[in-house]
Amino acid sequence: MNPIFQRLMNEATRLTRSGNLKAATAAIQRALHLGKTRNADADPMAAQTPPAAAPEGDVIEAEVRVIIDPPPWAEFTFVEPAEVLEPVIVDEPEPEQWTDGRFAHGGRTLAYKLYLPPRVAGSAAPIPLVLMLHGCTQNPADFAAGTRMNNLARAQGLAVLYPAQTHQANAQGCWNWFKPQHQQRGRGEPALLAALTQSVMSDHAINPARVYVAGLSAGGAMADILARRYPEIFAAVGVHSGLPTGAASDLMTALAAMRGSAATTPPHEGKMPPVIVFHGDADATVHSSNGAAVVNAARAGLDGALHAPQVTEGHSASGQRFTRTVYPSSNGQAAVEHWLLHGAGHAWAGGSRSGSFADPDGVDASAEMLRFFLAHPRD
User: Which SUPFAM superfamilies does this entry report, sorted A to Z (predicted)?
Assistant: First the structure.
């Protein structure tokens, strides 16, 4: 490598880490201009040579869809993936971003969408992140529209990550929560989703103490698995119309669990982060007893360190009734929260009709989840 080019890139690295982005940009532009001129002089065909294949392991790439033109230094990574970036002060306001990307890990590749909120000039604090897992037949754009999570994330200043299940992995686009190889730490889809989350955390200014996971139906079941298997990553979990970890071991037992015939509390395994559960008592797809089973498993995971439950009755702005049961921890804060939605079916409560499986008449599950999440930073 040309020594002048290397020196300029090293200088850009130093300036970026110190927060002087304008000077870093100028250094990179000089280096790129130098490299482009020298490469053209040395090899007139160099511009036509395809880039070398990426090495095996975790690979992440993203295409920005709705965003102003990124600065020239945006394509460069100046730290190793495992290194934690220090907060960088934003010199100028940054608009919100809605990006498409792909991530490879362990022989599988996932597409995803990532929402980043606008940043004001002078901001430096890392932001929370919510991993959102869609239900069967859904996709990230559909799920984002139905839950309206991006609207709330914009207002509250947090990032939202939506991975997409492949139809090669499941014909209906479901997360494979009912297969033993996808219920374990370090294997299958839990390992893939945990690695994707950590990759996004390393690429953006994410607060590692405020990373959460939520899902609907099959996504809710997988969210519960992730929270149990990776409590060092996820500070709290939201399960909407889902099932508890260990409720099934194959397709037949999954169908039985969904009907409610197998919705018993699974054996307690390891630490369970705080959990908030939403389930309609008229859900004909996943019986509401599964929501109660998620709650009971979470209570068992807290080793009885809970006060007596607090039960309230209420209704949404559109009149849909609910029963809310809160299980406070020893410090009085809600550690487990259960919303039983009366008359509600298999749909995200308080959602938008612009997405599938969303019930606009229900209580706002997205807002309530974020309220619960942000009250629970990871220790």
Answer: alpha/beta-Hydrolases
